[in-house]
Amino acid sequence: MPSTISTPRLALALLLLGCAGTWACASGSRSPGTPSDGPSVASDSFAREAARGRANPEPVGLAPVARKQPKELSAHGDTRIDDYYWMRERANPEVLAYLAEENAYAEGNLSRFADVQEDLFREFVGRIQETDVTVPVTSGPFEYYARTFAGKPYPVYCRRPASAAVDSIEAPAPGEISDAETVLFDVNAMARGSEFFRLGAQVPSEDHAHIAYALDRVGRRIFDVEIKNIERGDIARGITGTSGSMEWSAEGAYLFYVKRDPVTLRAFQVWRHRMNTPAALDELVYEEADETFSCEVTKSRSNEYLMIVSQQTLSTEVRMLRADDPLGAWQVLIPRERGHEYSVEPVRERLYIRTNRDAENFKLVIAPLGAPDQWTTVLRHRSETLFMGFEVFSDHLVATERRGGLVHLVVHPTTMDSGFRSFEIPFEDPAYTVRLTGNEAFDTRRIRYEYSSLRTPPRTIEFDLDQEAPVVLKEAQIGGGFDADEYEAQRIFAEAEDGAQIPLSIVYRKDRGESPGPLLLYGYGSYGNSLDATFRPNVISLLDRGFAYAIAHVRGGQELGRAWYEFGKLEHKRNTFTDFIACAEHLVAEGLTDPGQLYAQGGSAGGLLIGAVANMRPDLFHGLIADVPFVDVVTTMLDETIPLTTFEYDEWGNPNEKLAYRTMLEYSPYDQVSRQPYPNMLVTTGFHDSQVQYWEPAKWVAKLRATMTGDSLLLFDCEMEAGHGGVSGRYDRLRKAARSYGFLVWLQGQEKSASQ
């Protein structure tokens, strides 16, 4: 279950590198699913089609059998028996032994197609430019960027003096580091000796003499904060237990940071650290008392103001302080109100406010700095358009909007003498994704964004407002003979059981042929997080083996506006699962695949989706991958000591209320496991996962083993030195991806690429 708190303003680690994983980390009314005492009922046609599907592989070795220790869990007059509740005991030797046994069983079976995994891994590595450099981001008098080197798992972060032009677009050449560059962090050296290592946000002080940075050595998203004197190289340590969110005061004398609750991991306290003093003397400046809220600290684009943002699923409250008055009192801008979500950007004497008050899809208003409740509408609410966010510059702003399921960038003037009218930046593909990135300069006439599609590698583009022309600063070079013209991308629609039209983005090789073939269907559908048609280089290996790849834009995301989210949460959560099933059935009906060649994957809350669908329509799939799945919904949401539980009542419901309890119970994958055949499944988790605790998938797998019928293969891979995002080095991540995709290729029996 992910936190919805955003990352700091200048989180250079993420800003420079982006995410190239195979799935986006993020986590989970009446389910039509399976009653706990009987099998699901599938249509005759699908049952017959499944019967003609591929044979399941014979397992190697005996599958682990977990000990049952019944525990009664009672609520609202209902009693559930949980045989595997004891697996929550993290330090219990029996738990560790069981996980080791599952890992050994998984390895014994996965090793049977080690050659497939190795082929995939080599292909994955062959597609990336191992020695590379990102486009520099200009911040003050310097350009910040990251380098990668062949054979090294982590990046090297550098900076150099900015060129005479404020908006430099010339990137350093890949290769050796020059004398003109300063190495800020060689993460390879920093990670030496660590099984897991993550460098989080990197935030330079305003004078760029120091840089604060966050380190996670476990994978539980609890960061130590350190401060480096860039010129001298000495490092101040001692700040621990943080969320990684931090910002500097204007003169760099103080650093504000956010601490996590050590039990629930909720980001709840903002502290002020004075430079050159021990962390033990740091002062608490704000504590978020409401257990359903978390907080972060951020800074305005103009660098004039610091802000504490407190938020939960349905509400926001922002406090503001001048960055040059770090000892001053924080002022609440708009008091929290249930159902009111907003964000603020102070610019000169005005506040730009994105708000959903009387605007389901949000609108943009402005208000005087001293009167935040006196609104003038700038961008009105539109029923067909989700106003996702904005960035304000000195004389213009860029609105990010979602219409028809696709993201659009619209430029608006903010001053009379800006020299242009509002216009939209055009894009070419039928399905794509675009995001603003690297826009640190406030006084500029250039906009930077990243664009990609299912067949278009990521491009970093700078758009000149005066010329109204885009310039491609960098396009990711994809090796291995990749040619975008060999692939076809489409956007199609499936009809849900209530008539809703569910978008599907799909890509495949043009020479795949017309007969049904293998297809991997990916889904998420929670928290309003939308899955966009972004380029996924690892997917190419599946496409070259005859697979198609599809993304189901199910309800629970916001692809089609805020209502798309509202009708995929709480009492409407069932729609997420039935939408995904409708997408799968549509792909079969269109002849793109059949149940003997259809596979599905999802992670975190997408793992909940996979778990629910496995119970409801196991006949529809030959194989499933559930990454860090949120599957024990009721028990987790009843336990307020588990990280993120109280923060997410408005997403899943509060099971202390009887109706919410019954609704969750009827789709919770763990509670709805029944005696029926299931597809072949690969389940993954991380022992240090802070968002979906390892015991959820561990219990689920144990219960499946004890209950399911048939001869399908069930494998459980628990990474003992990782958290929610998996392993940390890029080569380790590629090997994990090769295991997952290798599992599908092996099940399908197509181990060679289409070009071989």
Automatic annotation (TrEMBL):
InterPro entries: AB_hydrolase_fold, Pept_S9A_N, Peptidase_S9_cat, Peptidase_S9A, Serine_Peptidase_S9A
Domain (Peptidase S9 prolyl oligopeptidase catalytic) ranges: 535-746
Keyword hit for Hydrolase: yes
A GO biological-process term: proteolysis
Top-level lineage group: Bacteria
Pfam family, one: Peptidase_S9_N
Annotated GO MF terms: serine-type endopeptidase activity
Domain Peptidase S9A N-terminal: 64-475
Signal peptide: 1-26
EC number: 3.4.21.83
Gene3D superfamilies tied to this protein: alpha/beta hydrolase, Prolyl oligopeptidase, N-terminal domain
Keywords for this protein: Hydrolase, Protease, Serine protease, Signal
Keyword Protease on entry: yes
Disordered as annotated region, ranges: 28-74
Coiled coil regions, renumbered to chain: none
PANTHER family xref list: PROLYL ENDOPEPTIDASE-LIKE, PROTEASE FAMILY S9A OLIGOPEPTIDASE
Family named by the database record: Belongs to the peptidase S9A family.
Protein's recorded name: Protease 2
